[in-house]
């Protein structure tokens, strides 16, 4: 038993300096802002349009949207099936 104690007492484990390495790494890397970049003001959808419907029209509209938000469904429909939101044809 004394032999084993002697063998283990000779072994020394050096503690790695993890904090110093982390500080060096943090100072050399640039941190960007998290999340999606903001759109330019001219690309941002900020204007609103109000639509007034009868109860029957609203029910039909809601059924066609199939659970999507109504504004999202309408904007997507206008983009894909008409030229109302295509600014190139208006200019």
How would you characterize this protein structure?
With about 90 residues, this protein is mainly alpha-helical. About 50% of the residues lie in helices and about 0% in strands. It contains five helices and no strands. The mean pLDDT is about 80.
Compute the number of helices: 5
N-end to C-end Cα span? 93 Å
The average pLDDT score comes to 79
Give the % helix. Answer: 40-55%
How would you concisely characterize the structure shown here?
It is built from 5 helices and no strands. It is mostly helical.
Features:
about 90 residues
Question: Mind sketching the topology for me?
Answer:
Blueprint: H1 2-10, H2 18-28, H3 55-65, H4 70-81, H5 87-90
